[in-house]
Amino acid sequence: MMLSCKQVALRASALVDGELGAWDALQMRLHLAMCKGCDRFVAQIRSTRDLTSAAALAETAALSEADDRRISALLAQLHDGKHSGAEAP
Question: How confident is the model at residue 88 (pLDDT cuts 50, 70, 90)?
Fold first, then answer.
């Protein structure tokens, strides 16, 4: 028996995330091959996941760069303090 559109919608995220077993994934793919509405819906879920992942990676990279700049500034201050004869706190 073919899955209903409601069943596909409920399992779309699991399909996109690779969390379905072989039989369930096959049933989903058969439905998507015949139902362009569900196929577009799953494509939107996939795009949303990809964009969210890319945004999270970009944010992590930006935070890492900001942390690197702060650490470099602190190390420079410590280095300058040692060479000027001042004691570090």
Answer: very low
Report how far residue 23's alpha carbon sits from residue 15's, in angstroms, rounded to the nearest whole number: 11
Query: pTM, whole model, 2 decimals?
Result: 0.61
Q: Where are the chain's structural domains?
A: 5-83
- CA atoms of 66 and 34, how far apart (whole Å): 49
- Measured from the Cβ of residue 31, the count of other Cβ atoms closer than 10 Å reads 19
Q: Counting Cβ atoms within 10 Å, is residue 32 exposed (0-12), middle (13-18) or buried (19+)? A: buried
Answer whether CATH 3.20.20 is correct for domain 5-83: no
Does residue 10 contact residue 27 with C-beta atoms inside 8 Å? no
Q: Pull the structure tokens for residue 40.
A: 């577009």
CA dihedral over 6, 46, 41, 43, signed as positive or negative: negative
